[in-house]
Write a structure and sequence with these properties.
This protein has about 60 residues and is mainly alpha-helical. The chain is built from 3 helices and no strands. InterPro entries: Antitoxin_Rv0909/MT0933.
Length: about 60
C-alpha cells in the first residue's frame, strides 16, 4: 500500500478511537464548505459527511 493509503488507515484508526472529536472535525469541514459555496452543494456535503462518519462509527452515522 502507498503512503496515502497508510495515512488513510491511520486516520481511520484514530477516528475510531476518538469518534466525538472526529465528529467535530467532520462537522467543521462540512460547515466550512457550505459557507464558502453559499450552501450550493449542501446535499452533497451532507452525504459526504454521513459517509465519513460511517467509516469510523460501527453504528452508522450519528445525529447532528
Amino acid at each position: 500500500m502507498g503512503k496515502l493509503g497508510d495515512m488513510m488507515n491511520k486516520a481511520k484508526q484514530m477516528a475510531k478511537g476518538h469518534p466525538d472529536q472526529a465528529d467535530k472535525g467532520v462537522s467543521g469541514a462540512e460547515r466550512m464548505v457550505d459557507e464558502r459555496t453559499g450552501n450550493k452543494y449542501d446535499a452533497k456535503t451532507d452525504k459526504a459527511a454521513d459517509a465519513a462518519r460511517r467509516s469510523y462509527r460501527d453504528d452508522g452515522p450519528s445525529g447532528r
